[in-house]
Amino acid sequence: MFCMQGKENIWYHARVDIGNLSKFAAMPSLSRNTVLLAARTCVSVVIGLVTSRLVLMALGAEGYGLYAVTASLVALFDFVNQSMAGASLRFMSYELGRGGSLRRVFRASLRVQLVLATCFVVMAETVGLWYVNARLNVGAESLPTVNFVYQMVILAAVFSLLKTPALSLLMARERMSAYAGLEIATAALRLCLVIGLCYGLAGGGIDGYSVLIAAVSLVSAAAFATVALRDSSLRVPAAGSEADRLGLWGLLRFSVLDLAGNRAVIFNTQGIMLAVNAVAGLAANAALGLANAVVVPVLTLTASVGMAVRPRLIKLYAAGDKAGVRRLLVGSARVAALTYMALAFPLIFNMRCVLEMWLGDYPPALPGMLAVLLAVNIFVVLKDVFVIVVHASGRIASLSFGTGAIYICGPFAVYGLCRAGVAPAASLWALGAVFAAVLGVTLCLASRRLGRGSLGELSTGVMLYVALVAAAGCVLFAVLGQLMPAGLLRLLVGVALSAAVFGLPLSAVSRGWRVRGRGSL
Which of 28, 232, 416, 502 has the greatest number of beta carbons closer than 10 A? Predict the structure, then answer.
């Protein structure tokens, strides 16, 4: 689908010359990176589903619930690590783009992760441990087991934290094959150990399972570090302690600002669930949870495009090639939107058939909620691509606080509509206004970073293009719905139609997309 002709094409192969600075080695294909990341996501999801089923069989419902509730306490810290990972990737890619000291940023990132890991352990062993023993509703007879599992989960989380600099380095170097391979290998190792657990490995209980998960985290962190540290640029002496302090401050500032925006997104996601629960009850919550179970994998697959282009966009921005950034941004936004619509349209127009095949009986509100969420999240897909340019500039305060304030309005809008008597599914259309506003703010901020005329180029090259293709898709799928009765045959025809409607423009974007300007790609 992403295959291209011509070595000058950016999705085929690339080399960047940055003025009189040292040249980049031939960059890997963006299309190949996208496919690798998408494959990694698909394989990891499938392995995860199988692993969850086997763990449930091995531990039973009570043991599985004990591990889940214990791990959820530690998972509350994960979004902080995600912000730090984004900061590390941005600064490493930027240093590569401007020919700076990659070793300096890597050392700063490692220091920050060590500090985070230390703070995490202190919090987990004080406040977290108190909550486990004083507030967690697990029964007195289970407390010794819960405490042991809790310690193993903390250990696994620490290894995950320390893996972040190496993971960011692989991403910045665009070594997606190594990243995807290690992630798949980690998931496969976890599956193998869980199969062994079913046959009595490590005692076959929850204690043994927690030990095995901690061991997998250790092996994964060691593997990522071994592969990443083979990078020869890390052996070049850094500029000095002052440079290290500057790099450390930049990472911390970026992470804190990004964290503010991420917390607003989390509030939006969790707040909507609470808003629906407050008015419509648990049945609506079940429908919303199942809808998210479909939407999240679709968004994750589409996010592979952004993950693949992020290092390249940041490098081009650091090199001052804003014309190249604009062209790459337009192309990657089109690819992301077309990929998302190719996945979403067959689901939207064959909703009941898909749900009957998947669930059999399902909550009545589920089809409406799922259709609305699939429709409005196209704004999120585009926003996630445009936000890369804002991150590349390093000036993200207006992005974090501006979009964060809009995200916070989402749960209140949904709650107000539900209280006014609007059906829960229909109330979710308020998210369309919220996500569209977030996209508008992000688009304006990205265009300001790229110079005069960028807003018009991005608006017509992306927004108008996506709107026209989406409108054509709606018309064709509506006609299909009138010509064929609902069922498996219409679903299969819809998948084929989606491949044609969105696959052909996607192929055209891939073949015709070239970047010229400062340096060559």
Answer: 502
CA distance 426 to 422: 6
- Measured between alpha carbons, how far is residue 160 from residues 53, 123, 154, 491 in Å? 23, 17, 10, 41
Under 8 Å between Cβ of 101 and 180: no
Contact 276, 136 (CB under 8 A): no
Looking at residue 220, what is its pLDDT?
92
From CA 435, how far away is CA 439, in angstroms rounded?
6
16 contacts 23 by C-beta, under 8 angstroms: yes
The kind and range of the H/E element at 86 are helix 78-98
Burial (CB count <10 Å: 0-12, 13-18, 19+), residue 71: middle
Asked if pLDDT for residue 373 goes beyond 50, the answer is: yes
The DSSP line for 311-353 is HHHHHHHHTT-HHHHHHHHHHHHHHHHHHHHHHHHHHHHTHHH
Cα torsion angle, 28, 31, 33, 35, sign: negative
Of 204, 121, 192, 191, nearest in space to 155 by CA: 121
CB 103 within 8 Å of CB 236? yes
pLDDT on residue 17: 38
What is the rounded CA–CA span in Å between residue 181 and residue 519? Answer: 32
**Tens of pLDDT along 62-118?**
777 777 777 766 666 666 777 778 888 888 888 888 877 778 888 888 888 888 888
| Cβ-based neighbours of 232, under 8 Å, separated by 6 or more | none
Which 8-state DSSP code applies to residue 518? S
Rg (CA), the chain: 24
pTM: 0.81
Instruction: Check if the beta carbon of residue 106 is closer than 8 Å to that of residue 165.
Output: yes
- 214's tokens: 């901690």
Using DSSP, state whether 27 is helix, strand or coil. strand
DSSP state for residue 14 in the 8-state scheme: B
Give 1's strand partners: none
As a whole number of angstroms, the distance between CA 183 and CA 514 comes to: 31
Has residue 6 got a pLDDT over 60? no
Closest by CA to 311, choosing from 11, 10, 92, is 92
Question: SS3 of 71, please?
Answer: helix
Amino acid present at 421: G
> How crowded is the C-beta side of 223, counted as CA atoms within 13 Å?
16
What type of residue sits at position 51? T
Q: Would you say 464 and 471 are in contact if contact means Cβ atoms under 8 Å apart?
A: no
- At 413, the amino acid letter reads A
Backbone angles phi, psi at 223, to 5 degrees: -65, -45
Distance CA 312, CA 318 (A): 10
- Per the document, the length of the chain is 521
